[in-house]
Amino acid sequence: TGTLYLVPTPIGNLDDMTFRAVKTLKAVDLIAAEDTRNTQKLLNHFEIETKQISFHEHNTQARIPELLERLKQGESIAQVSDAGMPSISDPGKELVKAAIDAEIPVVPLPGANAALTALIASGIEPQPFMFYGFLPRKASEQRTALQALAEARQAVIFYESPYRVAKTLTTIREIFGERQAVLARELTKKFEEFIRGSLSDLIDYATASARGEFVIIVAPGEKKVPTPSEVPIDSQVQTQIDAG
Ligand code: SAM
């Protein structure tokens, strides 16, 4: 059988393409791309002549049997999305599962990814973190999702479009309360920028102007100090004994 390679592509800076990514895309029989026109520009830049087939959220189920068949016949396939890691808020995961089920080797390449790139320069404690990706768009579902995240003591990473970033930050503040947060804007590009501050600061920024691509990282909440009446009786006694 062939191999399914998962190949990350740059998130804004072509120099972030790895040597191995170029080699792999040259060597495979076929590239399954989220948007073949977009990927063609990348292929032209790196003089890669491999044929492409479209593989995106609207044709995933239709394409999988065909791609599996080709893999079983011994062809190797590289899957790419428009930017960054396949499967991370992008197409790919269904093909990975199908390949694993069919016992076809799956080989991931490391490379560009917006979430981790933002996290390492955010200044927010990076462990533990939770990568959420895009919140649901429907207001009620968005709230439910945020409520489930509100209590955990971890950094939370969201992706969001520039059109919704101010509104989403406002809903996050409403449900999480005031917290420290970071907007990582236009990563790896000319106008890369980190906006660090409270959620309220970031809401002011995003309301004034929000152009480009954004990652939102929200710091863990402060540890809630229980008021005396919330402390279980046993441990109140214990505290008195310790203090005693
Ligand atoms: N697969 C990609 C990855 O590995 O990061 C993510 C694709 S997702 C469809 C696109 C979202 O990722 C954007 O809406 C934005 O939140 C984030 N993103 C992608 N590129 C970015 C960049 N250069 N700067 C900041 N955020 C970016």
Order of helices and strands: EHEHEHEHEHEHEHEEHEH
Number of separate strands: 10
| Beta-strand content | 15-25%
- Main sheet: strands, sense, barrel: 5 strands, parallel
**Ligand names:** S-adenosylmethionine
Shape: elongated
Distance between the ends: 72 Å
What is the radius of gyration? 22 Å
Question: How would you classify the helix and strand content by structural class?
Answer: alpha/beta
Describe the strand arrangement of the main beta sheet, using strand numbers.
3-2-4-1-5
Query: How large is the count of helical segments?
Result: 9
Subcellular location: Cytoplasm
Enzyme class: transferase
GO molecular function: rRNA (cytosine-2'-O-)-methyltransferase activity
Function: Catalyzes the 2'-O-methylation of the ribose of cytidine 1402 (C1402) in 16S rRNA.
Structure description:
The chain has nine helices and ten strands. It is an alpha/beta fold. The strands form two sheets. Strands 3-2-4-1-5 form a five-stranded parallel beta sheet, sandwiched between helices. The protein has a five-stranded mixed beta sheet with strand order 6-7-10-8-9, with helices on both faces. The model has no long low-confidence stretch (mean pLDDT 93). It binds S-adenosylmethionine. S-adenosylmethionine binds next to helix 5, strand 7 and strand 10. Residues 11-12, 81, 83-85, 88-90, 113-115, 159-161, 184, 186-189, 213-215 line the site of S-adenosylmethionine (SAM).
Write the layout of secondary structure elements.
Blueprint: E1 4-6, H1 19-27, E2 30-33, H2 36-45, E3 52-54, H3 60-72, E4 77-80, H4 93-101, E5 106-108, H5 114-122, E6 129-134, H6 139-150, E7 155-160, H7 165-176, E8 180-185, E9 193-198, H8 199-208, E10 214-218, H9 233-243
Parallel strand pairs: 1-4, 1-5, 2-3, 2-4, 6-7
Antiparallel strand pairs: 7-10, 8-9, 8-10
Helix pairs in contact: 3-4, 6-7, 7-8
The structure holds S-adenosylmethionine (SAM).
Residues 11-12, 81, 83-85, 88-90, 113-115, 159-161, 184, 186-189, 213-215 line the site of S-adenosylmethionine.
Domain Tetrapyrrole methylase: 3-202
Catalytic activity: cytidine(1402) in 16S rRNA + S-adenosyl-L-methionine = 2'-O-methylcytidine(1402) in 16S rRNA + S-adenosyl-L-homocysteine + H(+)
Subcellular location: Cytoplasm
